[in-house]
Each structure stands twice: as C-alpha cells, then as structure tokens.
Amino acid sequence: MANRVMPHSIEAEMSVLGVAFLNPKAFDKISENINSDMFYHEPNRKIFDALNELYKSNTPIDITTVKNELDKQKNLNAVGGVEYLTEVIDSVVTSANLDYYIEIVKEKATRRKLIDTATNIITATYNEEDELNKLLDESEKKILNVIRTRQVSDFMPISVALSNAQANLELMAQNKSAVTGLSTGFLDLDKATSGLHEGELIIIAARPGMGKTAFALNIATNSAMKTDKAIAIFNLEMSAEQLVNRMISSVGQIEGDKLKTGMLNHNDWKRYNEAMSELSETNIFIEDDASVTAPEIKAKCRKLASTPKGLGLVIIDYLQLVTTGGRVESRQVEVSEISRAFKTMAMELKVPVIALAQLSRNAERRESNQPRLADLRESGSIEQDADLVLFLNRQDYFENKTADNKPTIVPTDIIIAKHRRGSTGLFQVLFELNKSSFKNYTNVNVEETF
C-alpha cells in the first residue's frame, strides 16, 4: 500500500501546458478549470504558475516569455531548463482535445485528494479521544469538500439568469396555478406563500399543546398525497406508531381516543382501512430516535435525496430538542448552529425544511396573548435563518375551561410573522382537537396583509 504511486498523468499535464503555448487564448479555459495544486509533476506545476503570471499581466505566452518568467522565479533549472519546455511544447499538435486533457488532469487530482482525505479520516478515527459524532460530521464535510472540487460553479451571466427567469414564468403561466411550490393543503397558506419552495427554512412555532405537531403532520400528509417525492419526518418526542395514529385519525376522521382504546365501530373501521390505504400509497419516512443529531438528520436526508424519486419535504419536531452531538459553549449557540445547519441543508438538497419550535411564556403574559418573533425560545439565529415563520395561536388555550365544556373544534390563528418572499399576515383554520385535524376555514372574517 505504502509503495503505491498516486494517480496522475504527466502526459495529460504536459498536453494542457502545451496547448497554452500553441494557442495562448486557450489559457482562459485552462485557468477556469485547473489550478496549480492539480498538477502532480512538480516541473509542470512550476510551468503552470509561470504561465498564470504571464496571463495575469497580459504578457504574450511563448517559449521566450515563459523562460524569462521561470528565470525570474528561479525555477528554470528546477523544471529541466529549455529542454523540458521544448518537450512540453512538442507534446501536442492541436488544441482540439483540450477539454479531454483538462478532464484527465482534474480526475487524477480528485483521486489524489480523495486518497489524502480518506487517509486523514483513517488516522483521526484511531484517535479515540475525539467524539464519534464530531468525527463523523468532520469526515462527511471533508468528503463533501472533495466532491465540491469537481462541482465548482461559474458566475452566471445576467443573460442566462434572465432566460431562466422567463422560462420559469412561462412554465407557471402554462400551469395556471398560483401554487408554484409544494402545496400544504391549506388554501390561505398556499395563497400567501405560493406553496413551500426548495431551499426554504420554515419555522412553525407555538406554545406546548397548541397543535403544532398536528399542523405539521397535516402538511406532511397533504403534501405526500400530491407528490411522489419522499417526505421525511423527524420526531424527537413521539414514537412512529403514535405519529401514524395521529395521521390515521386526521385522514380517516376518527377520534383519537378510539385509536388509543381500540373501541372502533363499523364505520370507524371502514374509515380506518381507507386511511391506511391512502397513507400506504404515500412516500413518507419517519425517524423517531429521540437522540438524533443535526448531522445525522442531514446525512439521512442526503440519503433520501439521492433516491430516484428524490426528497420533497423535511419536517423536524422540534428544533430545540435537537443537538449537534458535540461540545458547545452554550445552548443558545448550539441552537443557532442547528438552525443554520437546517437552512444550509434546505439549500444544499433543494428542499423545503419545516422545523417546529417552542415559544416562551411571554405571550401568555400579554393581554392579547399574541406571539412575537422575540418569543422564540433560545432563538439565536432562528429568526435570521428562517425564510418563513408561522405562529399558531388559539384563544381557547388561554381560557379556563373544564372537561365538560371544553370545545372539540376551535378556530386557530395562523400568523405569518416573517416572510422573506412575501408579506406577513394572519388567517384562520379550524382545529378538530380529537381528530388531530386542521381544516380550511373560509366562513370567517380573515385579516390579510399579503
């Protein structure tokens, strides 16, 4: 193993350099795709550096100017003198195959970088003083850095951006739908947001028991029935069975208490089987590990995103229960790191990410009981990272009701407190508490500012 030669192709490296002598304008493409570190052969690396200096100073590239530049850098003898420069120049007779030479050099360089990275990971793994979660996260980042070396994006000319914008607009016009993203199933929310869009971090926040889990599960089932893509649900409070029972209760319109006791009548069983059939056709995946960390969530989502159907939506219940899996200076700093990780995950995987969050008791102390962005617990950068922040608020939650007169269907305010792509506002839905089901509420006065 130790005697193995690292992947390389001196011939391809010489050919790339030779094309630069043959066609000086070709160095535009060479410099855009290759850097000095990609050359394995030291003399070739030094010649590339000399070519790059001439290119940056607008000096013509030929054997004389390159020789002088190497002399200036005291590298002429190190590369083998004029004899090796002549050999480089004679290595190609046409610039037609430049793309092919560049790809060989890039491929060999990527292989070497991958070997170096894997070797560093192996060495670090033997050090048992490092935390495993931190080691896994760092290893994943290092591998991703190797991947990014072959996925470097160029500046996008405005002509291309304008063309893309026009194509998207024409596509939306053909669809004749106001919902351009993933539909939530809630008319007013879809109207305000045009659906959930890739790259967005959506925060749904409320006090405990307000119904945020039920609302998120309703969005999950509604969305799953409209797309073949995977819907990933991470719940750190409930088991998968509890979540599934809530979904069945909502989809089948069966009282949750009956599912807890098994006391279902004939019609209940019929609705139960229909709900089971509907849900079995969706592509929902549930993770109910209470100790799952932010890096693990990202890794699991990457795996789903790589499947043929792809990933359509991620739901995390809830943000303040997630950890980074490593040592942090404070919980607020950790929550900030987690919210940023979820935002970058949304952008990297091009998927909307919904993260549920707890609110502090501050809203309960106000006369209006209206939540504010400042009420986000351990907020850190949650507000900053979020593209959309929704608050759930129910007045019955703050009223003293006994079990005898406690309502089963209650109006619930959905407050759009932050909206990066549009306006803020408020609309209402109906929440059937005993069926974990939210419904569109169109027969009330709706305050809208969007």
Explain how this protein is built:
The chain has 450 residues and is α/β, with parallel strands linked by helices. It has helices spanning 10-22, 27-33, 42-56, 63-72, 76-79, 81-89, 98-126, 132-148, 158-175, 187-193, 212-224, 240-252, 256-261, 266-280, 294-305, 331-349, 362-365, 382-385; strands at residues 201-206, 230-235, 284-287, 311-317, 353-358, 388-393, 409-419, 425-432, 437-440. It has a nine-stranded mixed beta sheet with strand order 3-2-4-5-1-6-7-8-9, with helices on both faces. Helix 1 packs parallel to helix 3, helix 11 (212-224) packs across helix 12 (240-252) and helix 12 (240-252) packs across helix 14. Mean pLDDT is 83; it is low at 443-450.
Short description:
The protein has 450 residues and is an alpha/beta fold. The chain contains 18 helices and nine strands.
Count of strand segments: 9
Sheet with most strands: strand arrangement: 3-2-4-5-1-6-7-8-9
CATH architecture of the largest domain, by name, is 3-Layer(aba) Sandwich
- State the major sheet: 9 strands, mixed
Counting DSSP H or I runs of 4 or more residues, the number of helices is 18
Average predicted local confidence, pLDDT? 83
Distance between the termini: 64 Å
Q: Helix amount, in percent?
A: 40-55%
What structural class do you assign from the helix and strand content?
A: alpha/beta
Order of helices and strands: HHHHHHHHHHEHEHHHEHEHEHHEEEE
Q: Tally the structural domains.
A: 2
The CATH topology of the largest domain is Rossmann fold
Shape annotation: elongated
Task: Please identify the top-level CATH class of the largest domain.
Answer: Alpha Beta
Percent range for β-strand residues:
5-15%
Rg, nearest Å: 29 Å
CATH superfamily of the largest domain: P-loop containing nucleotide triphosphate hydrolases
- Which blocks of ≥5 consecutive residues have pLDDT under 50? 443-450
